[in-house]
Amino acid sequence: MNSITYRITGLMFLAVALTVFLLVYLADKQMTEHFKEYRIVQHMETSQQDVTGHGVGDTRMTMIMGPLEETFLTSVHKSLVWVGLAVIVAGLAASYALARSITVPLRNLSRAAEQIEQGNFDQKVPIETRDEVGQLAAIFNRMAETLTVNTNLRRQFLANIAHELRTPLAIIQGHLEGMVDGVIEPSKDQLASLHEEAIRLNRLITDLRDLSLAEVRQLAMEKSIIDMNQIVSRAVNMLKPSSDAKEIYVECTFDEQLPEIEADIDRISQVIYNVLVNGIRYSPPKSFIKVVTGKIENANQSWIKISIADQGPGIAQEDIPYIFDHFYRGDKSRDRKSGGSGLGLAVVKQLVEIHGGQVTVQSELGQGCVFQIVLPVRLEEAGGDMESIS
Fold first, then answer.
1. Nearest one of 249, 4, 174 to 106, comparing CA atoms
2. Would the pTM count as exceeding 0.90?
């Protein structure tokens, strides 16, 4: 009797049975009493007519319930009993059907949940109704889809990490083994190459660490009052050798009235640096990158916006929703010449969101990219809580 089906059926049947018994009892009692009253009144009217018409009347009450009346009442009583039994049987069937309509979807959910517990995330339950049970089934299906996607992303993420770590380690190992065996003569160029791979490996590990901490909002932040124009100008100057090497001109347009913001200077510098590096890497030689800062008002809040536009090959529309995912690149090949490790923009997104801001990208193939970074001004200047910008 621990099944919900039996419990719901029993409760519904008990309620129907009590209702039917009560109605049958009252109908039977009322039928008998009213029928007797009707016969008495009819007998009195008949007696009254006899007295008026003949001047003679027997004032005594004769027997008013004859065999025909008794037969009629018995027939009515039996009809009420049969109707009551029919209603009880119908109520039992309806109660069982109602109970199953609730418990069968729950059993399907339970079996699907057991499969997910065992690691089989590709589970779906049928949605047969639009009530609370149907809504629960729809939520479960969305949860299962999310788990499937997250599991696939986790596997891909681990595979990408292994690939990105293996490449510099294989290079370092190969060069060192060659030097130990005497096949490769140690030289300044060889040591510089190994040093470059070590730096790349260290940067990758640092990005992975920062990204993992940022996703769980445990990245240490040292906020201070900063001037965003200075941050952007410093990042542009730092990357000037890279842009000059490709003859790329970086044009900066600063809002001189830009308010200061409260942020971690190192993290925000990393955000600007990563976006600029991405623009320089993909922009063709002798092109330009335009950087613009400004202030906007949105959602009863003051924000500063940094726009970085390049003249690169652009991003396909189907790739834009995934451009900030881990290791995602439009070029699916893992050739180092096609780009970096694929973590730079993922780090940008997490660092911006930690500061209460948003980062978006607008792009079309062959038209370059425009990255927009929006950060909130200090609360005392904004005059309210920070809200997300739609």
1. 4
2. no
